[in-house]
Amino acid sequence: MNIFETQYQETRRLLEYENFPALTKRIIDLTLDTEDIGFYRETVALLDCLDIKPTEIREKFDAILTKLYDFLSKKEIREKQKLLEVNQLVKTYAHSHFSLGPVSAELYEGEIVGLVGENGNGKTTLLRSLCGELEATSGKIEYHFDYEDAYDLRTKLIYIPQRTKDWRGSLLANLQFTAASYDIFGEENELLTQLVIARMGLREYRRLNWSGLSSGYKMRFELARMLLRKPKLLLIDEPLANLDILAQQTVLDDFVDIAKSPFRPLGIVLSSQQLYEVEKTSDKVIFLKKGQQKNHRVEEEQTSKLIIEFECNAPQEQLQSALSVIGLEKLQLSGGTFIAIFPDTVTQDDFLRIFLENRLTLVYFRNISNSTRRFFL
Amino acid sequence: MKKIQQYLLLHHPLVWNTKIVPIMAITLAINALAFVVGYSSTTFESLQGYYSYNNYSNYPLLLFFTVLSGLVILVLWLVYYARNNAFREFYLKRSTALYAEWLMIFVILVSLIITPLTYVQGAKMKVQTFVSKEKVLHDVETINMIAALIPTDKNSFFSEFPKGYAKNKTGELVKIKEVTTEVYENEVTLEEVIIENDSLDYGKNYYLYSNEQLDSLANQKLTYKDFPHFAPLSLLNQEFDNQYYNQISTNNIKIRDKKEVEKWLLNENKEKIRQLIDDFLALAKKHHLPASLTTDQWLRLIYNPPTYPVSDFNLILRSIPYGYNNNSRYYAQNGEPKYFVPYEELRRAYENILSAHYENENSNIALLVIVCIAGFVSLLVFSFRCTSGKTWLIALVSAVLLWIIYGFIAVVIALAHNGGDRAIKFFMLFFWIALFVCELIYLLSLNKNAAAKKYSGVVINHILWLLPFIPMILLGGYVVWLNEYYGWEDRRIITDWIENNMLQIVWADVAFTFVAVWLLLQFVIRRWKSLPEE
Q1: Does residue A34 sit within a domain?
Q2: What would the pLDDT profile of B117-139 be if each residue is shown by its tens digit?
Q3: How high is the ipTM of this complex?
Q4: Fewest C-beta in 10 Å: which of B195, B199, B494, B528?
């Protein structure tokens, strides 16, 4: 089963579970994959129908899903190409002691790279360097896709900063202008912007002005505009900032869906302070500490310790005593959370067994052995 | 308009972005209004005044309105135009699209400031309807010649000697006018020149003499035996200046003038003179202008061969008396001439009508001025689009500083060379050329090395602003060099050619600017935009 088949089956399951909001998003994604105006019309008609809450909604979804499958199953799925190679990139500033690098990384189509680190450690510098805004002091960035000239390259690299510029005028007009600037005209333009707006959950907000939006919805409009530009690489700085926990998860799911499209994959590099969420979503994680790259998580990398982050109401002495039975090396308390370090012979189950045996109440725990969280210790 | 803009948004985003359609609709309406106002407000009476219909300084209110409305619309347009900038956001943008955007800015700006010209064109069209092109030359000829038969004052008709003669030391009359041939650029022209000789007595200047003084001199009965037609106060003594010199010489029109009338007077051709007076009075009647003379009365006053004397009895006022009512009778007051004819009114009116049919120079110059202003301002706007507001402001401030430095250095050079002309002239030209060349080289090297932009946005602004002036500065430098190193004879042909073709040279400069902007966009600016910021 290829990636499209897998995603299709997942989408079918959404229909079975009647998770219509998520299903709608996936249908829009598949519609965008078709790049066919006939499907755009059908899906927009479906969306209009949903607005008035019809009774035979399930049948409508089923019908369009079947058509999409018939169409897309015949479409060729390309092998994922390498997009970007960074080799010992260093960036220094003339009037600052800060220096980023050396950083090395690779990015393929359909991959999400998370960029984590404390404030002021070079995340934004790296993102801006990758999108061409900053000149490398040394090292190399190679882009492995076609472009006509330097300007054309920059049109394919979209950088969404943490604080975006205001949009002037109507939001819908802005999006239609973007699509038209990319040679999407007439009815196709109208349909595509409708789809993209619906995909990002912005249908109710499209008639508002920029100043009337929350920062979360502003970021979604930026993502909607990005979709219309069909970039090769998306670089986004702190997309989860100012979002509630549910919105964060939604946006991360959107990134996964957008990046891992079988027919229109793109590479995403995103920076965030939300470590666990980013690690869950990303294929690779780059941790920056004082501009230095600390790790680049791949499947082969393993740590030699078991590190558990947990919360418990028992006093530290009691926990020290209980956990030393299984070979606790270190127990530290930081901000109401305990970090316990064990040798790699100890397993997560061993840790949980101690709490059960000693009837200690475990409020929360997380295995951070392979998480960049451990670099914050 | 909303539907049109929506269509443009979905099909022609660049046209939508520049807002050229709504702006042109507004400016078209304003210009149409200006045209209609120009047309309807122009009457034959208005042409009789002391101004030309196509002299823009005669319309201060129009110019004020143009500037005010232009500024208001410009600001409004800029606000809407600045809402979306595809180039700044790194959308797909080919060089041709960038160039098209600049052209649209230019067209918008032309439409904003062309209102005075449109007004004048409306007036011109109305003026052309007063007399057809086929008839106007005949009427102008009539007015041109009739001046010979309107003795308004004695000073213009007084002469101590016959025309074209002076007295030598022995008291004999000698000829002082001769016809010479001039050859210029293979063209032969005849010119009448006055021979200057310190030993000759050319007669005094009698223009400041009073009528009584002139009468007294005339009563001395100055006569010369070889000149039976001569009298000190006579129609035959007036100078023959062509009333419509500019239009006639510019358009190579051949019409008769007072010289022809002089011949008729000398040959005592009364019929032709009568016909001329008839034609003139018919013209006055056609345009509802009063005259206090009939043809017979006029003839009786002036047709007195062989000397055609001018005296108090036959002075004629050349214009309609102030406050004269068509229905009233004219009574001369305080020594004024007893008669009047509407010569000045017709002359001024026909000057305008002739100009409307034959002269395009004023309109061409006005159009060129508008194109130049619009071109420069469009480059100001476009440079803002290519860079940013902050960079544009820094560029403006730095340009002002450069002017100050330039002025300071010029003063130093002037002092160092004791006000030496040559050094100053070459510095004035060299400074701006050198600045332009250095900035261009800097940009090209940045592009070649793919180096960071840093403050090069300021340079982009300067380059675009200086661009239209470069050819004229180079030309100025060439002229200065010619003047410094070549004698008058050697350089005359070139400098005369430059002077005679200045309009064409400036148009060529405009064409150069259009080409240069295309080249800059194609090879410099688009590449520059892709450079890293720092």
Answers
A1: yes
A2: 899 899 999 999 999 988 988 99
A3: 0.85
A4: B199
